[in-house]
Write a structure and sequence with these properties.
Shape: globular
CATH class: Alpha Beta
InterPro entries: MraZ (IPR003444), MraZ_C (IPR035644), MraZ_dom (IPR020603), MraZ_N (IPR035642), MraZ_sf (IPR038619), SpoVT-AbrB_dom (IPR007159), SpoVT-AbrB_sf (IPR037914)
Pfam family, one: MraZ
Strand order of the largest sheet: 1-7-8-4-3-5
Number of helices: 6
Subcellular location: Cytoplasm, Nucleoid
Subunit structure: Forms oligomers.
Order of helices and strands: EEHEEHHEEHEEHH
Family: Belongs to the MraZ family.
Distance between the termini: 32 Å
Structural class: alpha+beta
Radius of gyration: 18 Å
Mean pLDDT: 94
Strand content: 15-25%
């Protein structure tokens, strides 16, 4: 499964072509379907979501869980798999942003790619800046820190290990 890190802003030409960031291309090259990226409208933002085939396989398998609410399954199947568009990278590492997806996200002359570990998002750059500021305000208000997150995960892992003993 590919790992997507960092943020990049790339030009979108008049034909809707945009370069996938080199780091993203390197990650995609190691997947089960190199040269293809899958895009769909975000459920929560005026942005696009992107992933590789391996991630979609895991997501699809997750939908088989009996613990998943049938309404949630229906939403994911309709809004992710039903709107998903596979896009091929050309020889120069570019994709053509599907017009309906670009319009949904308000992407015109530039596209901001932001890695989110196993997936990535594509935003109109100004909208991404505003979104990041909103998130930063929440981080400050909630006093979130990386050391707190690591400590919480360590406690949870220790608790799970204790249950198995």
């Amino acid at each position: 499964m590919a790992i997507f890190l960092s943020t990049y802003v790339n030009k979108v030409d008049r034909k809707g072509r945009c370069s996938i960031p080199a780091q993203f291309r390197q990650s995609l090259a190691k997947t089960s379907a190199p040269g293809t990226v899958y895009l769909w409208p975000s459920l929560n933002h005026q942005a696009l979501e992107g992933a590789d085939q391996d991630y979609l396989d895991v997501l699809s398998e997750s939908l088989e869980s009996p613990d998943l609410d049938s309404d949630e399954r229906d939403m994911i199947e309709t809004f992710i798999f039903g709107k998903l568009i596979p896009v091929s990278l050309d020889g120069e590492g570019r994709i053509v942003l599907p017009k309906e997806l670009a319009e949904f996200a308000g992407i015109d002359e530039e596209a901001a790619f932001i890695g989110r570990r196993k997936t990535f998002q594509i935003w109109e750059p100004g909208a991404l800046k505003a979104h990041e500021q909103t998130l930063r305000d929440q981080v400050v208000r909630k006093d979130i820190s990386l050391s707190q997150i690591v400590a919480k995960a360590s406690r949870a892992a220790a608790g799970r290990a204790g249950e198995g003993a």
